[in-house]
Amino acid sequence: MFYGAVVIAPVFQSVNYSFYDWNGVTAARWVGVQNYVSFFTDPALSAALGHVLVLVVFFAVLPIVLGLISAGLLGRGRVTGAAVYRWLLFLPQVLTTVVVAVIWKRIYGPDGPLNEALRAVGLGHLAVNWLGDFTWALPALGLIGTWSGLGFCMVLFVAGVSAIPNELYEAARIDGCGAVAEFFHITLPGLRGQLAVALTLTITSALRAFDLVWITTQGGPGTATTTPALLLYQKAFENPNVGQAAAIGVVMALMCLAIALIITRSVEAKD
Amino acid sequence: MAIRKRLLAAVAVAAPLALLLSACAPGAVSTQPNKQPTSVSKNIASEGDVTLKMLDTFQGGDSTWVNAVIKQFEAKYPNVKISRTTQNFDQVMSTLNLRLADPNGPDIATVNNGWQSEGTLAQAGLILNLDKYASLYGWKSEIPATMQRELEFTPDGKQMGSGSLYAVPTARSSLIGLYYDKGILDSLGLPVPQTLADFEADCAKIKAAGKVPIVYGSEDKGPNTAILLAVQDLYGTAQNIGDFVYSKNGSSGKIADTGIVQAAQTVKKWADAGWLTPNYAGIQYADAVNAFQSGKGAFRFEYTGTFSFTPAQQQSFGYVQLPQVADPSTVVGTGSPSANLAISAKSKHPDAAAAFLDFIAGKEAAQLGVDQGDLPLLHSGLSVPSNNPEFATEVAGQNALDKDNGYVPYFDWSTPTMLDTLGTQLQLLLAGRATPDQLAQAAQQDYDKFQTQQKNG
Q1: A232 vs A84, A210, A241, B12, B42, CA distance in Å?
Q2: ipTM at complex level
């Protein structure tokens, strides 16, 4: 009952709102699917969806690939100081996004450590305003996501690797597999479950990206880094257009649901 | 079996959904505009013990000022207590609509001018129409007409700039103008600019001397527009800017008349000449404010009340309200009360609340502000501290505006989204991704869209 009251009822309410033109206080006006149509007609919204696709690469694809590599390296062999690496890489995961965003805002600043470092090694011509540059702002944001997502993926995969029976690896070695073949034939298939979890969580976190963007760029420069969640916030609270905000929320929820379904289905199908 | 389960689940989801969709439109309950108190009175003492809840955005020095004002008010009306809740501007603005809809919400609240806040609340009948109190306390004769216009909405809540008063200004003002660092100007032997041409001549020389002429950071949308609005006031006439913002019937509603294109061209020209702080695109607002105050550049366009100068800095910084380019004898500037207070339509003690609104707009309150170096509003003949030359220049700027009645409303009040639109477009303009005309077009589009909505709504 409680769950129904605090989760399910608001969901229906949002769906309901999304069919209205409403500023939050005065009488609402029924507009049918107009708020959904604007996903195709409003360039700001479609641009935001495009940005999210880029973020998915940085938030999901990169951390998972890097996580797999580091799990391959840290998981099996006896690397000196493996625990220290693990601890260091997991650190971003326990930091609040706000803290992460503030730290990186400094790092990316015009005279921040990143540009200072570039200048120090004679690459001063590469130093740009990372978060203020139309080309670089989105990738720069994405890299923050990669940095904070990596630890999570790695810990997940390292745990997964340690659950793979040793016999499999021994058998593989007897069959003459090298480290690379071992990774592709045993480690990767053995991590399918963890991969599904990592993919679902990281992709949805890319779709929901708000706090990081809000604190670092507010969607700027121009509209180079807007995300649907950012527009949702602006439309729900800053410049009340609650119906449109609700429509964005509903579409985001459906996308997250669809992605989760596709991923779990494809993992189940192989089992 | 599995299919049947899913079917059931689908029905379970769809049934209440269909019910809800057919049932209710949100927010349709009791939203008639033009809420008025039935009878008004100055007799506060007869109300017994009253506690007024106030939700406000006064921070820093302003907060000290408000506390001093409340203390004097409570001394004057011993049966009234005011309990303040202070939050930053964004927090209050994003929750104000809901808080005022709450029967136990605040009695008094700061509302922002324009459609983002006051207009919407007036339209929804969440704040009181203050006309009866205005005649009771004589506000209409005390508050300058241009400033009243900033706070008026028609009874149906559809038009700004005429109709009834829905909020009262506090006795503190906020302008946009040009700050200068006299230390830097003196070291290069440059005069304090009195016109835009002077200013540009100074900038060229400061640049040649290897210093930063204009301290600027454009990373934060919103505050980055102060420079644009300040320059706009040098080109557009007060009449045209006002009519555009208030979307006055009969005004052309053409943004090209407001000087915004010339302003955008000018700012872009300065950026191309290298007069802005290097790497301004990556500099945050707060960092730019700090940079100017710590002597990293000669000029900065800024809202008054933003800087808090130390006694030493008060000797070396100054403020000037530049006159119009076409007619240097006229001064036009963006200016408004630093805050406006409204009374909740749900307040049980509107008379006491109105008494406070009258007090905080009064001369005693203005003097309390001046005592701590903040620009007063509505009142003259206040005693200005003599050891603060910086403040004296701000007062001079304000007097120039008073003389010509040159106040124009903040341009971004014109639509709920205008500030964001301008902030975004300015970033695009400076990066060479939009022309001054495109900036104006984007703002016009924002404006037209809102006007259509107002007509349909």
Answers
A1: 40, 9, 9, 28, 45
A2: 0.79
From the CA of A129, how many Å to the nearest CA of chain B? 5
> What's the total number of domains in chain A?
1
Convert the pLDDT of each residue in A83-135 to its tens digit: 787 788 788 888 888 999 999 999 998 888 999 999 999 888 888 889 989 99
CATH of the domain at A245: 1.10.3720.10
Q: What is the pLDDT of residues B216-227, one digit of tens each?
A: 999 888 889 999
Q: What is the span of the domain harbouring residue A21?
A: 2-270
Q: What's the gap in Å between the CA of A148 and the closest CA on chain B? A: 22
Stretch 330-349 of chain B: residues touching chain A, C-beta under 8 Å? none
Does A118 reach chain B within 8 Å, measured CB to CB? no
Domains recognised in chain B with CATH numbers? 45-172+338-383 (3.40.190.10), 175-335+399-456 (3.40.190.10)
DSSP assignment of A140-192 equals HHHHHHHHHHHHHHHHHHHHHHHHS-HHHHHHHHHTT--HHHHIIIIIHHHTH
How does strand B152-153 pair with strand B164-165? Answer: antiparallel
Q: Which residue of B17, B417, B423 is in closest CB contact with A239? A: B417
Per-residue pLDDT tens over the stretch B411-454: 888 888 898 899 999 999 999 999 999 999 999 999 998 888 77
Q: How confident is the model at residue B457, as a pLDDT?
A: 58
Chain B partners within 8 Å of A109 (Cβ): 282-283
**Is the Cβ–Cβ distance between B443 and B255 less than 8 Å?**
yes
Give B16's contacts in chain A (Cβ within 8 Å).
12
Helical pair A242-270 and A34-41, crossing angle rounded to 10 deg: 80
B279 CB neighbours in chain A (<8 A) are: 110-111, 129, 132
Whether B121 contacts chain A with CB within 8 A: yes
The distance of B102 to chain A (nearest Cα, Å) reads 12
The model's pLDDT over B373-422, given as tens digits with 9 standing for 90+, comes to 888 887 877 888 888 899 999 999 998 888 878 888 888 888 888 988 99
